[in-house]
Amino acid sequence: MEKSSIPLKGLDAYVRSVRREFEEKLAELVEIPTISMDPDRQPDIERGADLAVEYLKAIGAQAEKVQTSGNPVVFGQLIVDRRYPTVAIYNHLDVQPANEPEWVREPFTFFKHDDRYEGRGTTDDKGPALTALMAVRYAVDNGIPLNFKFFWEMEEEIGSPHFEQFMKKKRREVKTDSVLVSDTIWISRTKPAIPYGLRGLLGFTLTLETGKKDAHSGTTGGAARNPIGELCQLIAQCYDARTGRVKIPGFYRDVKRASAEEIQNYLASGFSVRRFMRAHEFKSLRFTDPARVLKSIMAEPTFEVHGIVGGYVGPGVKTVIPPRAEAKISTRLVPHQDPDKIFQLVRDFVRSKNPDVKVTHEATLRPYLGEFTGPYADAGRRAVTFAFGKEPAFTREGGSIGAIVTLEERLGVPIVFLGLSLPEHGYHAPNENYDWGQASGGMKMFVKYFSEIAQLNR
Amino acid sequence: MEKSSIPLKGLDAYVRSVRREFEEKLAELVEIPTISMDPDRQPDIERGADLAVEYLKAIGAQAEKVQTSGNPVVFGQLIVDRRYPTVAIYNHLDVQPANEPEWVREPFTFFKHDDRYEGRGTTDDKGPALTALMAVRYAVDNGIPLNFKFFWEMEEEIGSPHFEQFMKKKRREVKTDSVLVSDTIWISRTKPAIPYGLRGLLGFTLTLETGKKDAHSGTTGGAARNPIGELCQLIAQCYDARTGRVKIPGFYRDVKRASAEEIQNYLASGFSVRRFMRAHEFKSLRFTDPARVLKSIMAEPTFEVHGIVGGYVGPGVKTVIPPRAEAKISTRLVPHQDPDKIFQLVRDFVRSKNPDVKVTHEATLRPYLGEFTGPYADAGRRAVTFAFGKEPAFTREGGSIGAIVTLEERLGVPIVFLGLSLPEHGYHAPNENYDWGQASGGMKMFVKYFSEIAQLNR
């Protein structure tokens, strides 16, 4: 059996031996505040990318910063033998802002406490990126017959607006037989999860202008139109906020409904409504049944109002009628909803209900659905079981990773998500952290995965 | 006929002779920024009140600043003969803020251009107050058999929260046979208007808290409640924003419907939908029929959303689900709606639709309805016709003057509104102004009115 030839015996010792190096590299990377949302952090983005290039070169890869009209993409290639199959590893090195008052320590100072590493970016996604890097070095040094490519993005947190530009620019060099993505979250520490789908996103604003200046609600109220009131009414016509059900005709037409098997997979993820509520500090939810909750966050589209601008927001009530109001809205989309088609539905619906309301497109991310069966999913399952001693649950992520749909469309190869973040890691939240348990398990998982997929594509 | 004994012959000459004094006094008063909404203007409020006391003393009145827990009320008494009937004159000397970028000149520097006087407070309500003061001096000097009292408030623009305190403190001294209010607006320059009703106000907030921190709409969207969406839905259940129709059961129960005669009176005011839209810079209105528009601003209650707090209001769309949202709402109320009863209806309705939403009371002003017939209304009609050569239209004001209901309840005497502001005066707007045409006509109107009511109550 070929697999016996894959050298996994020294792996435990290797993982123990690189701990110090891993921590030092993670510390250095975390202390560069690569906040892609903040234009003032541009020099940090470049510094972070430069450091990443260094890390890649240190393991023998060719590496460069590929410039785009936005932030660069760090692109690495470690071609051992052109006859070997290739895996491309996707991670991102930009991070969320860290303004939350709940941070106990300075978010961009790396803090190590026993097995735990604290700081913005530790779990999303610098820690998993370095975990994979360490695994690649072991795989190469120990003769696993694979070539490696690295797509380390610096714009994931702002929707990957220039990732496609990178893919086009390097269209020949990015070719690969499969993609490994490590930027997702388990549902529970006790149960590894392999997501195979992502929701998409359509963001838009609704704007209504009924006048040019504030009006006095005494002198004009009754005859004057109220743009906030009309947007509220329109939003209530678009969806039932109590249940989340979207009322725009045709909205659900292309939704691929989750099968009974999929729902069973979600339920096997270790999900608990109580823990979910505690983690996100919700007072109540729309649903209490676990299957219903999981379906609504993994396999169903949403309609969400993020804010309403215009009008008075100071203390008390100032009885003014504003001339203009804007509602900030997004819908998360699921396979096979098409954001362009949905935008058209929204625009037509708004026109039919309140033609004075302007609909402005803000953002598009297409939904993604991969496979939870087949050789690559099987390789993932075996890798997870090998490293963490438990079969993974196959789930879907409720969020969106802009680059994934681009990868799928431009490469047309299997994409496998082997994430390492845990709910308690504070993904997108204050006091973000990562831990040695996930890093060390992750290295073993990746090495095993590489050894598995090296057997395919031959 | 008794009226012939009233000396109106020298009136024209008197009015001409006081023009310079009027302008100087108005300038001095306007240049004190008595903005009651701005706590930093407290010293200006006091300075303005001190100057007003001086002005009253200069015409021979007893005058004092009556302190309350808020701003003082300037109280003057000019008792000529205890056997004469008394009229109390209500004006206010506080003003709106003047932050609008559209101001062409410094709002608190008095500017005279031919017959026009510019500056915050010129028409609302310092100009009319001084107009009445000049008329009183003439009336007293020329033997019109009346006593005069002055209620010059410094909190009208913030809803008169301490006026009742003043009325209680001076309960014996404030007694009068009638009240004259000069703080209202004609509908058109070409047609004087005497309002006989005011809308009331109930201000409240709707607050919904569904969590403790921002949630990620990818990770939690679908299961997470959206407090902005739910408030929009609740608001749409409360009223139809397109028509303004309130859907809360019982809301219209106590509304005294405007009679056909009243509607005819409103239509006689010189109102034009086109001018109304231009004055307030509206792009469109709920209604286009003049009678429908007038009814909706004068004789019908409203439901108004002034602002929604919570959520993201920066550029673009940030896909966060906020933990909390607040809607700032008021209803203008008409006779005989009771604000306390309406608040109860709102609270019960909200509880039935979304029990997690908290309703917080913010402000109450009761509606007021006087008479447009009877001896005082007749005196007003004759005074207006005498001074401006045109019969007045009897209208209702859509706004609220907090002190009026207090005056009605505590004094129980007729209240007549002889306002002098014109639509083009920029009431509550940038480039506020007043003019000598209205001031000189106003002096004659008041003198004639005093001579008329001196015949009553004997």
Structure, described:
The first copy, chain A, is an alpha+beta fold and 458 residues long. Chain A has 2 domains: 2-198 and 367-453, 3-Layer(aba) Sandwich (Aminopeptidase), CATH 3.40.630; 200-255 and 301-365, Alpha-Beta Plaits (2-Layer Sandwich). Chain A has 13 helices and 18 strands. Chain A has helices at 11-17, 19-30, 42-58, 122-141, 163-169, 227-238, 260-267, 273-280, 290-298, 339-353, 375-388, 402-411, 436-453; strands at residues 62-66, 73-78, 86-92, 111-113, 116-118, 147-153, 178-181, 193-198, 200-209, 215-216, 304-309, 320-321, 324-333, 358-365, 368-369, 393-397, 415-417, 433-435. In chain A, strands 1-2-6-3-7-17 form a 6-stranded mixed β-sheet, sandwiched between helices. A 4-stranded antiparallel β-sheet of chain A has the order 11-13-9-14, covered by helices on one side. In chain A, strands 4-5-18 form a 3-stranded antiparallel β-sheet. In chain A, strand 4 (111-113) and strand 5 form a beta hairpin. In chain A, helix 2 crosses helix 4 (122-141). The radius of gyration of chain A is 24 Å and the shape is globular.
